[in-house]
Amino acid sequence: MNIGRFPFATRLILVVSVIALCGCEKLTPHDTKSLLIPHLQRSEVFGFLAGLGTTCAGLPDLITMLKRRSAAGMNPRMAAITGTFQLLWCYYGLLILSRPVVGWNIIGFLINMLTVFAYRRFSRRA
């Protein structure tokens, strides 16, 4: 690769970026303890945050169905499939002893099964 064909500004930015990255080596944290809750690993804190987002992703469908008291436009298959695989995630979380994996997937499983049961209840009324 011929670096001479790149404009001077591009080469300057590249060189400065490499120098900056080399100087940042000591800025990365090397411990695995959380800064907020010392008895939790940092990975567990991020696991809880990620679990919160993915678990709550199923709530809008459930809330909409309960507010409308109708299953119109809803398909329970995705909730049933997701709930089934969340049980597998729970088992996996038990195998690796991960509280975030177990906790959030139990909650997600319950939300998805509530969605399926609400669909069944409201689809009988129609």
Could you name the key traits of this structure?
126 residues; mainly alpha; 71% helix
List the helices and strands and how they pair.
Blueprint: H1 8-23, H2 42-56, H3 59-68, H4 76-96, H5 99-125
Protein described:
The chain has 126 residues and is mainly alpha-helical. The protein has one domain: Monooxygenase (Up-down Bundle), CATH 1.20.1280.290. The protein is 71% helix and 0% strand. It contains 5 helices and no strands. Helix 2 packs parallel to helix 5, helix 3 (59-68) packs parallel to helix 5 (99-125) and helix 4 runs antiparallel to helix 5.
Number of domains: 1
Overall mean pLDDT stands at 76
Q: Quick one: biggest sheet?
A: none
Reported CATH architecture:
Up-down Bundle
CATH class: Mainly Alpha
Q: What is the CA-based Rg, rounded?
A: 24 Å
Helix content: over 70%
Tally of alpha and pi helices: 5
Query: For this entry, what is the oligomeric state of its chains?
Result: single chain
Number of strands: 0
Shape assignment: elongated
Distance between the termini: 67 Å
What's a concise summary of this model?
The protein is 71% helix and 0% strand.
